């Protein structure tokens, strides 16, 4: 089922727009993005993620959503996977048949004639935040983490994205004494919902994840995103880390915006300067 929720009504005068899609474990979001302002324009479409979430099922849902948006131009798709040289390499919260999937070939079949590029979902959010949000203008190492079904990460150094980091799968010791586990099994937003944790109960688990990362990499700031950052006022003050923490600005739309931006840059419609130089290799 696809539902539409209104976002910003009008693009800026003469603004270039692009299509962005964000594939999550439970929902797929798509929208038209004003590439100058980094904001959604028109309706944000939301569909249930098909189950099983195979490449063909997801690509077909994306085709329907892109048709509904009804515009030409390149499409960017953010996926919870490592996208390495055009091939999806891992699959968490999506069907394991994604592993080894050639995404160019996939979309050639489902959206023939349309230029479609794919990138990791947290990397898409990182591109958004470094251009338009909480990481803009910050030199040095900034680490963005998204809290949703899993934990996604984007590493930003001097405003450039270093793609495909997977800190959601970093093994850390559980502060509740249950041994070592992946960070996303200890502190994702879905774990908070599943275990019905209050912010006071959940925040120490997030702090533990941040502590492990800051001890290894010494970033100058963390940017924390995902829907849960809407309530940043309620739980950021509970975090006990030496690294400053900022809330992501675009929250739930960061993946859509970053995917559209990436597609426009890849197609040469938009110049991202240094931001993507490493990403493109
Ligand atoms: C995936 C990442 C993704 C993150 C957030 C993790 O399980 O491995 O690629 O960025 O979830 O969706």
Notes on the structure:
By secondary structure, the chain is α/β, with parallel strands linked by helices. The chain contains eight helices and 15 strands. A hairpin with a 3-residue loop joins β9 (141-147) and β10. α3 (121-132) crosses α8. It is globular, with a radius of gyration of 18 Å. Mean pLDDT is 92; it is low at 277-281. Residues 80-81, 90, 92-93, 120-122, 146, 148, 150, 152, 166, 168, 184 line the site of beta-D-glucopyranose.
Structure in a nutshell:
The chain has 281 residues and is α/β, with parallel strands linked by helices. It has helices spanning 55-69, 103-110, 121-132, 183-187, 189-194, 199-217, 232-235, 254-266, and strands at residues 2-6, 17-23, 27-34, 39-48, 75-79, 83-84, 87-88, 116-120, 141-147, 151-157, 160-162, 171-173, 180-182, 221-225, 245-247. The structure holds beta-D-glucopyranose.
Question: What would the keywords be for this entry?
Answer:
Nucleotidyltransferase, domain 5, single chain, five-stranded mixed β-sheet, disordered C terminus, binds beta-D-glucopyranose, 15 strands, 281 residues, 8 helices, alpha/beta, six-stranded mixed β-sheet
Task: List the topology elements.
Layout: E1 2-6, E2 17-23, E3 27-34, E4 39-48, H1 55-69, E5 75-79, E6 83-84, E7 87-88, H2 103-110, E8 116-120, H3 121-132, E9 141-147, E10 151-157, E11 160-162, E12 171-173, E13 180-182, H4 183-187, H5 189-194, H6 199-217, E14 221-225, H7 232-235, E15 245-247, H8 254-266
Parallel strand pairs: 2-5, 5-8, 9-14, 14-15
Antiparallel strand pairs: 1-4, 2-3, 3-4, 6-7, 9-10, 10-11, 12-13
Helix pairs in contact: 3-8
Bound molecules: beta-D-glucopyranose.
Beta-D-glucopyranose binds at residues 80-81, 90, 92-93, 120-122, 146, 148, 150, 152, 166, 168, 184.
């Amino acid at each position: 089922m696809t539902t539409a929720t209104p976002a910003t009504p009008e693009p800026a005068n003469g603004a270039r727009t692009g299509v962005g899609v964000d594939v999550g474990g439970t929902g797929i979001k798509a929208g038209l993005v004003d590439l100058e302002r980094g904001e959604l324009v028109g309706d944000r479409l939301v569909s249930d993620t098909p189950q099983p979430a195979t490449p063909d099922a997801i690509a077909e849902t994306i085709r329907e959503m892109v048709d509904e948006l009804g515009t030409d131009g390149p499409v960017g798709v953010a996926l919870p996977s490592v996208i390495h040289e055009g091939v999806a390499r891992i699959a968490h919260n999506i069907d394991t048949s994604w592993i080894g999937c050639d995404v160019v070939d996939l979309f050639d079949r489902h959206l023939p004639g349309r230029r479609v590029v794919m990138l990791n979902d947290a990397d898409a959010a990182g591109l958004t935040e470094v251009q338009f949000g909480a990481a803009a203008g910050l030199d040095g190492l900034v680490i963005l983490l998204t809290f949703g079904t899993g934990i996604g990460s984007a590493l930003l150094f001097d405003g450039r994205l270093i793609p495909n980091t997977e800190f959601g799968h970093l093994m850390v010791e559980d502060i509740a004494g249950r041994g070592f586990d992946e960070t996303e099994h200890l502190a994702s937003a879905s774990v908070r919902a599943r275990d019905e944790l209050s912010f006071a109960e959940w925040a120490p688990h997030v702090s533990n994840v941040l502590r492990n990362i800051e001890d290894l990499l010494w970033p100058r700031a963390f940017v924390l995103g995902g829907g849960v950052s809407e309530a940043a006022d309620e739980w950021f003050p509970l975090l006990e880390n030496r690294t400053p923490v900022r809330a992501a600005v675009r929250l739930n739309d960061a993946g859509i915006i970053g995917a559209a931006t990436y597609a426009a840059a890849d197609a040469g419609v938009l110049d991202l300067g240094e931001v993507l130089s490493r990403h493109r290799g």
